[in-house]
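Assemble and predict.
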Amino acid sequence: MANVRLDSIKRRFNNVTAIEDITFEIPDGEFWVLVGPSGCGKSTILRTIAGLETATSGKLYIGDKQVNHIPARQRDVAMVFQNYALYPHMSVAQNIAFGLQMRKVDPKVIQERLMTVARSLCLEHLLERKPKQLSGGQQQRVALGRAIARQPQVFLLDEPLSNLDAQLRDDTRAELKQLHQDLGITTIYVTHDQVEAMTLADKIVVLNRGHIQQIGEPQNIYSQPANRMVATFLGNPPMNILPAKFMDHSFDVSGQVLPCPLVIQEKLRPTAGQGFDLGIRPENIYLNESPRRSPKSERRFPSLKAFQDREHTQQQLGELLVEVKVVEPLGRETLIRAGLPNSGVILNIQTGADVRLHSSDDAFVPQRGERLSLELDLDQLFVFDSATGDRLYP
Ligand code: ATP
């Protein structure tokens, strides 16, 4: 086992810079996940650590040793690829044992490791089969088993679950976490799936366009995203972004008024007309009242003054009218996609299985085109610089 350190690693392919200024250190035994959209450079970083790519510049260390010029097979890392890369003419047992035989490990040790790995990955009854006689999930487990049997200093996993169906993916993800807890081998895992990143990682590295956006523990990245890209990448459904202008103690959001909490005014000292991107997660939006169900005259929307009066005493709420676009019942919860009228801004709203108003027990099914009033929990509001995307608040 070993720590892995990247110091200003850059990789160019002709005139394409795949990764730039990649610097981080993974302590011995930790599980780190590299996450980001397609093409952000995740696989290039992993392949560079494996020795399958050569860094254009920068230094790479495994343990105390700089390994830039050490060939892949001498780096003592095991990589699991998305496409498994099993030897088709070998049985499961031979696939798992092959790497050890090549390293001239004692046959007795090989047999022991084979059986341990087969037991822990439920492969015992499949040892004599060839890869083509296995399901995708079983092949995936063999590829993992082959890597584990090697007992390398570092595991490198490149989207290892992406070919599995949803159920198997969940199960194998849990097995992977358990395996890491049992073996304690430093692991670097590449995915574009933010659920895998959140559930598996000790630390997440969020990448975009070849650059690191943020490194941190999953919950910290979720609650304190460095910028708009990170905020919208982690979280499903993603954080809602509302372009807004500051106007006299409030934000103008596509012509609607959202109170600007005092703490935000004190921290940002915004000027009239200044543009921001406001962020609010779907779980921090409630359904207030439906104009269809509650005639306008009877609605009790708090005024800006009322909002300011109660600001220091209770939850701060802001209200927006939206128009329902799509309702997606997901069993345990329902997602509503709704648009701000006269703008292209779409909000994701997460409700319970039954859609209910914030202060009512009555369930109802919102209809496409229906206008809904939303309450936004302004204590949970994020503010981003609309030009750079950097988080300004909190
Ligand atoms: P994905 O999730 O789609 O696998 P990724 O985040 O792993 O993407 P990389 O495969 O690391 O991304 O690629 C990063 C960038 O480098 C991309 O723009 C890609 O087109 C480019 N790239 C990768 N390999 C090569 C290559 N051999 N030659 C030229 N460009 C390359």
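The chain is about 25% helix and 35% strand.
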